[in-house]
Amino acid sequence: MSDGEDQPPLVEHPARPRPDGEIRPRVPRALVWRVGYGRTDVVQDLIAGTLLAVLLIPQAFAYAQLANLPASTGIAAALVAPVVYALFGGSRFLAVGPVALVSLLVGEAVGSDDAATIALVLAAMIGVVLVLLGVLRLGFVFRVFTRPVLAGFVFAAAVVIATSQVGHVLGVPVERGVPPVGQWADVAGSIDDFRPASTILGLGVLVLLLALPGPLRRLLHVQDGDRGWRPNLVRALPLLVLLASAGLVVLLDLQEQGVQTLGPVSLPNMVPALPAFAEVDWAALVLPAVTISLVAAVTTLAIAETLAARDGSEVSTSRELFALGLSSMTLSFTGGYPAGGSLSRSAVVADSGGRSPLAAVVGAAALAASAVALGPVLSAIPRTALSALIIAAAVSMIDREAVTDAWQHDRAVLVVMVVPFVVVLVAGVQLGLLAALVAGLAHLAWDQWGPTEVARPDEAS
Question: Which residues pair with 340 in a beta bridge?
């Protein structure tokens, strides 16, 4: 996922994680990427990690807000998850930490009362599910989520994410945990209560995040795969815009006009401790935990496989699931919340020459340094600007290429794309995920037993 800049499609052909053979429990070996790792790779990881931090800093705060959790929780997730993944993950490019879709689902699950504790328990449950999937080597089952199905599901999820933040931008209350149709009705019914200062600032940030990257890339003559200061300036745009919005809040004293800010920013207390598991209703969290586990797994595997195709490497589904699950389990004891694989940050690692998961660890360290050195500045970031950042990131989630290909070449594929899209918008993400599963099975069956298109004589010639 990105922050308002173009990224490669979520999934490319062949977009299916590699099966791991027969089902037999096995704990993946640690540090498999260290083979062939040398001094020059360290330098590349330092560079890639520093650039990664430019995205990680605003995303850690924005996605914590999306999850209905304090900023310290987002920082903890951003610091711990990359370290654990670096120990057991196999992808050289995958950046694990706070991501939009997982954050949205966590926010719907935790509610508002004792949200931080519920998030810890949820992280533990999700971690157990993913670790078991990895140890039992069941990652191949995610092949059912084909590219069109996943594109339709993520497209709808992007609409859900963007809709959830419209109320924050306008400064009006919107009920969480309901489908977008209900949230749009809430916004329409409360439009007279919007806060002008918050709305103008949020919409201004949103316009900049959506409109500037393209012209800036053309002005600087930035091409895909370029390195150097020019593409890095484009990547830094979201952070620069947020810092500028914080400056406006201070200079114009916008807090007096109802603009809410991020508040105190500092390093969280990540001393391992047992959360109050006994005080939480575990039964009520089972369905959300399974849903989030599946969403985190299928999107993370798709991102890892897409980026692995760049250098011809392969991705072990069992290893990725185990590493992601262990990351979430660790976060449950260190004050974080469930993590996932980030498309935008992973693409930055790949595009900037990162060599290993240590690049993401460097990015986490840079985030920690920023929280200490720039705490007062970051605390002035307006929440409406963070909501605008989330909306811009949601827009960039859409796999336009998959939609275009389906429309131009295969309307049957378009149908399996539309099914999860519609169900998510009308009935919510959980039922939408079930619809995606059914649509994926139908798509695989159609590929296997459906009619074969025969070229017309004029095409054959």
Answer: 97
C-alpha to C-alpha distance for 112 and 106, rounded to whole angstroms:
11
Q: Contact, 327 vs 160, CB < 8 A?
A: no
pLDDT of 299: 92
Which range, of 43-57, 106-120, 138-152, 163-177, averages the lowest pLDDT? 163-177
The two three-digit tokens of residue 220, written as one number: 């600087």
Residue 270: other Cβ atoms inside 10 A: 17
DSSP assignment of 280-340 equals S-HHHHHHHHHHHHHHHHHHHHHHHHHHHTTTT---BHHHHHHHHHHHHHHHTTTT----E
**What is the tens place of the pLDDT at every residue in 277-319?**
777 888 889 999 999 999 999 999 999 988 888 777 778 888 9
Mean pLDDT of the chain: 85
Calculated CA dihedral for residues 430, 434, 439, 445, nearest 10 degrees: 160
Please give the structure tokens belonging to residue 142.
């995610």
Stated length of the chain: 461
Alpha helices in 136-177 (DSSP H): 147-170
Q: Could you please report the per-residue DSSP string of 369-426?
A: HHHHHSHHHHHT-BHHHHHHHHHHHHHHT--HHHHHHHHHH-HHHHHHHHHHHHHHHH
Residue percentage of the chain with pLDDT more than 90: 50
- Reported as a pLDDT band with limits 50, 70 and 90, residue 428 is confident
| Tokens 């599946």 found at | 294
Distance in Å from the first CA to the final CA of the chain: 43
What does each C-alpha distance from 363 to 8, 47, 82, 115, 197 come to in angstroms?
21, 9, 9, 27, 33
Whole-prediction pTM value? Answer: 0.86
Give SS3 for 341.
strand
**What is the spatial distance between Cα 56 and Cα 371, in angstroms, rounded to a whole number?**
12
Question: H or E segment at 197?
Answer: helix 196-211
Going by pLDDT thresholds of 50, 70 and 90, the confidence category of residue 164 is confident
- Let me know how many helices (H) and strands (E) the chain has, helices first: 20, 2
Whether 152 has a pLDDT exceeding 60, the answer reads: yes
Whole-number pLDDT of residue 404: 81
Residue 166 in contact with residue 174, Cβ under 8 Å?
A: yes
Quick one: CA torsion of 146, 152, 153, 159, rounded to 10 degrees? 160
Distance CA 104, CA 455 (A): 45
3-class state of residue 22 by DSSP: coil
Residue 359 has pLDDT above 90, yes or no: yes
Q: Which of 247, 204, 212, 211 is closest to 233 using CA atoms?
A: 212
